[in-house]
Amino acid sequence: MDVRILIPGYRELVEAAGPMAVVSHLPSRGAIPACSIGKTQTADGLPVYVLLCPELYDRAGSPYGDQHGVDWVDNDIRFARLSLAAAEIAGAYPVEGWRPDLLHVHDWPAALAPAYLAWNKSATPCILTVHNLAHQGLFPAERMDRLGIPSQAYSIDGVEFHGKVSFLKAGLYYANHITTVSETYAHEITTREHGCGLEGLLRDRSREGRLTGILNGIDESWDPYTDPHLAAPFAAGRWRGKAKNADSVRKAFGLAVSRGPLFAVVSRLVPQKGVDLTIEAAESIVRHGGQIVVTGRGEAHFEKALTALSARHPGHVGISIGFEEKLARRIYAGSDFLLMPSRFEPCGLSQMYAQRFGSLPVARATGGLAETIEDGETGFLFETSSLGSFLGAVYRAFDAYRSRARLAEMRRAAMACDRSWANPAQGYARLFGQALNLSKEAAA
Questions:
Q1: What is the role of this chain (predicted)?
Q2: CB within 10 Å: which end of the chain, N or C, has fewer?
């Protein structure tokens, strides 16, 4: 397959890519400015088209907000530009003579693309992958003209959602097929508990056979024997290297030398991730001889609470606010258990990273966590989002730690799990083929 990526020209990306050839220009629509398309490639040669529009993307901060975490006021324009560019390249404005047979778009920032295809009368099929339904891209209805959205699209069968324009709903409605990043999450989002108000539309798509769950994978760099970020390499059954990584992590976080288990949190510090449950459980973990390291960034009150927790338990709880990949990889490699008490988790990658590095996840049985963790074999699962249920799994982890033979057996099983992209890639290939065949049949 001839796969190419389209991505906004964020400041860091453009600076890292260096000089790039401009291969196309796209016109304005409504308040969406004209832009150019630059071309670069990934390290392994995958073509990347970069949306060059400095007035929208050349900014300090994150892709979605400024340096203080405040959303950009023109995010609707910024991501409508991305969606429209994808639809235009698939329609009247091919790049370098290349027009895709199919668009595959991700989450709300690109979810207007299938809608623009429909409004442009384009027959190019489009698949939308939902990574997190909770983020929907909601904007005032009075901005429709600025976004080039036809007035008739503002309805329940279109972009309207509780009096606003929903980018994600538009994608769910107009896409030919919807995928999520696990089979469990594909079912969960058709329920009131996890459907975020869109469960009715998603149940319709499920009944039509147009909603599929395909579990994510992780790349080949997650190999504890070859990862250059680690303090020492190791493999299943050769645990000395893992112990050296644990020593490195304890030193980095100022923890005492300990014979107890090392629990880790590598996460965004937000309610979805159950950070409050981790904070509540910490007292019991420390009392039973465990240590905890946390790295991540998120809501200020969680950052403050975790910092206070560390101050109450010096030498037993260590906190690093922020994210640094080398440190995160060493934490996965050095920890015994990874805490993931998520209230919902569409797929989750941290548990796969941890398993690959011999750290057993302790997680709620939701979304992709339920699919990637075999309870009592490659980690520990608990059912309800409550402190009692969570601690029950934590205590089982302590029990496993006390039995060195069982701990080694579980580590080996976790490290042997196949989390590569081979199976997901086959799933997407089948789905792409089906979408193209249906499109050809419709055209005939």
A1: Synthesizes alpha-1,4-glucan chains using ADP-glucose.
A2: C
Extents of the domains making up the chain: 5-217+423-443, 240-419
Query: Hey, what are 440's tokens?
Result: 């050809």
CA 441, CA 444: separation in Å to the nearest integer?
Answer: 5
At residue 90, what is the residue type? A
Q: Spelled out in words, what is the top-level CATH class assigned to the domain 5-217+423-443?
A: alpha beta
441 — pLDDT class (breaks 50, 70, 90): confident
pLDDT in tens, 428-438: 999 999 999 98
The answer to whether residue 444 scores a pLDDT higher than 80 is no
| Integer Cα distance of 33 and 36 in angstroms | 10
Instruction: Report d(CA 232, CA 246) in Å as an integer.
Output: 10
What would the pLDDT profile of 284-339 be if each residue is shown by its tens digit?
A: 999 999 999 999 999 999 999 999 999 999 999 999 999 999 999 999 999 999 99
CATH classification for the domain delimited by 240-419, as one of 3.40.190.10, 2.60.40.10, 3.40.50.2000, 3.90.1150.10: 3.40.50.2000
Do residues 281 and 253 lie in contact, with contact meaning Cβ atoms separated by under 8 Å? no
Q: Are strands 317-321 and 177-180 parallel, antiparallel or unpaired?
A: unpaired
Provide the b/e sequence for 311-343 (b: ≥16 CB within 10 Å): eebeebbbbbbeeeeebbbbbbbbbbbbbbbbb
Determine contact, residues 138/120, Cβ cutoff 8 Å: no
3-state secondary structure of 264: strand
Total residue count of the chain as it appears in this document: 444
- Asked whether 68 and 55 are in contact (CB, 8 A), the reply is no
Relative to beta strand 164-166, strand 177-180 is unpaired
